[in-house]
């Protein structure tokens, strides 16, 4: 059995004649199949050229007809235009068309009218869908690869909206991005409305509701100062584009392994029309690492340790604070039901370990992981983004504390205007800094050291 494919311009009389004949054959011959492709005149030439290129054909007019051997597979067989189609039907079935020129013109006009109405209906249907525009920069990073399926899980956002995923990688490999887009579409996730790729800033961040920055421009060859300058330049552009193109309620999450606070700070300075609480810098990864080491010390699972606080520069000088940390399922002198917890500082009696080995483990953890895996910690980074996003969308659990780089307004003696990692919780879509945090002299010194470093970074990029 052969299936014929007939394609042509909607306003083409020859297409109308071929269509009329093929409809007649399909009604009267049970083994005759025809598939019709009606293109608007403005789209016809581009479609024809692309189709011929894909199939290795040469054809330059409307209509075009080919056969597909559906029971044998293989490449389609080009018949040609109207005359070739008529000759084939005459020779094979002994049937021809007696359609008059006047009727051909009338049907062609009707085809064009119907095609334009269908296009209007399609545009209207598309306008009824209000997708959530999510932009991920540095989309070719391994973190993005693990993040995408988590973002498209039902329940990640309120009312599970359709998602238009924008994959941005400035000066990235266009073919690799297209491959990533194909993989995203292959997953057939019900919430995915569309996935598009971008390799330049020409159309970056248009209509963005959520922006996740994974950019890391730190280079050992370039050195710290040059990398910092390049990072600042990139994020100045990002901030300006976000300010002018994104939705006014956009949320921005800055992640990565270098200059995290600085990147968030530069974005804020260059997006003056947006509120400061729409930007956060991710501190979940070092917090996860600290949590895992404490859990190992207490012989519990990492999930059983919560509310570890990170102060300061997330990718630089930071301090891990356990004053609010809790442990569940700890097998000590006092035990209780699953919901029962104890303060970590009450069950870790080895203060020397906290002041020496624990700090050594934190300082070397990232390098050890990199040496073993030969890549950055992408899984934990993706998990941290989803954790923060879930709290942002639905609120923190009672008593839950997260650490995030946010703009300081002078809390805890930290200079106002610095993006500084602080303990926060989310309520009603906004982050709040808790007031029941104690700052002793030891912690105050740590905060001052981190603030000094962050201020020096800001001053450095201003001078440059």
Would you mind describing this structure in some detail?
- With 464 residues, this protein is of the alpha/beta class.
- It has helices at residues 13-28, 41-55, 82-93, 101-128, 142-151, 174-186, 224-245, 260-269, 284-298, 344-347, 351-355, 357-373, 378-394, 441-463, and strands at 3-9, 33-39, 64-68, 77-80, 132-137, 163-168, 192-198, 210-213, 251-254, 279-282, 305-306, 309-312, 318-321, 326-328, 341-343, 402-407, 419-427, 430-432.
- The strands form 4 sheets. It has a 9-stranded mixed β-sheet. It has a 4-stranded mixed β-sheet with strand order 2-1-3-4.
- Strand 12 and strand 13 form a beta hairpin.
- It is elongated and about 100 Å long.
List keywords for this structure.
single chain
Q: Low-confidence segments, ≥5 residues, pLDDT <50?
A: none
Strand proportion, as a percent range, falls in 15-25%
Q: What quaternary form is this? A: single chain
- Straight-line distance between termini: 72 Å
Mean model confidence by pLDDT = 91
Helix percentage: 40-55%
SS elements, strand count: 18
Rg of Cα set: 31 Å
What characteristic shape results from the CA principal axes? elongated
Structural class: alpha/beta
Q: Given the structure, what is the number of helices?
A: 14
Largest sheet: 9 strands, mixed
Strand order of the largest sheet: 7-6-5-8-9-10-16-17-18
Q: What order do the helices and strands come in, and which of them pair?
A:
Blueprint: E1 3-9, H1 13-28, E2 33-39, H2 41-55, E3 64-68, E4 77-80, H3 82-93, H4 101-128, E5 132-137, H5 142-151, E6 163-168, H6 174-186, E7 192-198, E8 210-213, H7 224-245, E9 251-254, H8 260-269, E10 279-282, H9 284-298, E11 305-306, E12 309-312, E13 318-321, E14 326-328, E15 341-343, H10 344-347, H11 351-355, H12 357-373, H13 378-394, E16 402-407, E17 419-427, E18 430-432, H14 441-463
Parallel strand pairs: 1-2, 5-6, 5-8, 6-7, 8-9, 9-10
Antiparallel strand pairs: 1-3, 3-4, 10-16, 11-14, 12-13, 14-15, 16-17, 17-18
């Amino acid at each position: 059995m052969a299936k014929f494919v007939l394609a042509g311009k909607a306003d083409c009389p020859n297409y109308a004649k071929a269509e009329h004949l093929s409809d007649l054959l399909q009604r009267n011959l049970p083994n005759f199949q025809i598939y019709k492709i009606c293109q608007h005149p403005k789209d016809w030439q581009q479609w024809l050229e692309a189709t011929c290129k894909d199939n290795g054909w040469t054809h330059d007019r409307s209509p075009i007809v080919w056969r597909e051997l559906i029971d044998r597979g293989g490449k389609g067989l080009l018949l040609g235009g109207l005359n070739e189609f008529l000759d084939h039907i005459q020779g094979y079935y002994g049937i021809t068309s007696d359609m008059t020129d006047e009727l051909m013109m009338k049907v062609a006009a009707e085809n064009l009218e119907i095609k334009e109405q269908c296009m209007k209906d399609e545009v209207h249907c598309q306008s009824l869908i209000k997708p959530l525009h999510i932009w991920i920069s540095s989309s070719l990073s391994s973190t993005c690869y693990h993040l995408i399926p988590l973002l498209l899980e039902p329940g990640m956002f309120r009312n599970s909206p359709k998602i238009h995923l924008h994959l941005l990688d400035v000066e990235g490999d266009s073919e690799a991005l297209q491959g990533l887009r194909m993989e995203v579409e292959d997953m057939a996730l019900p919430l995915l409305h569309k996935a598009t790729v971008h390799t330049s800033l020409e159309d970056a961040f248009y209509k963005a509701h959520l922006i996740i920055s994974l950019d890391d421009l730190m280079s050992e060859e370039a050195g710290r100062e040059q990398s910092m300058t390049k990072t600042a330049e990139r994020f100045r552009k990002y901030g300006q584009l976000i300010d002018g193109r994104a939705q006014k309620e956009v949320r921005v999450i800055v992640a990565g392994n270098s200059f995290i606070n600085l990147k968030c700070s530069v974005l804020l300075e260059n997006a003056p029309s947006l509120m400061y609480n729409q930007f956060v810098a991710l501190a979940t990864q070092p917090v996860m690492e600290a949590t895992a080491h404490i859990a190992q010390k207490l012989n519990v699972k990492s999930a059983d340790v919560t509310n570890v606080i990170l102060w300061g520069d997330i990718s630089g000088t930071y301090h891990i604070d356990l004053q609010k940390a809790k442990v569940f399922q700890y097998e000590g002198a006092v035990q209780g039901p699953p919901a029962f917890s104890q303060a970590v500082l009450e069950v870790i009696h080895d203060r020397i370990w906290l002041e020496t080995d624990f700090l050594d483990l934190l300082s070397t953890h990232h390098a050890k992981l990199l040496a073993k895996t030969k890549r950055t910690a992408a899984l934990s980074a993706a998990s941290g983004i989803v954790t923060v996003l879930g709290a942002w969308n639905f609120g923190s659990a009672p008593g839950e504390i997260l650490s995030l780089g946010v703009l300081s307004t002078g809390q805890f003696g930290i200079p106002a205007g610095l993006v500084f990692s602080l303990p926060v919780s989310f309520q009603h879509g906004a982050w709040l800094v808790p007031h029941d945090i104690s700052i002793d002299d030891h912690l105050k010194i740590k905060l001052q050291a981190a603030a000094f470093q962050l201020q020096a970074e800001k001053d450095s990029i201003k001078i440059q």
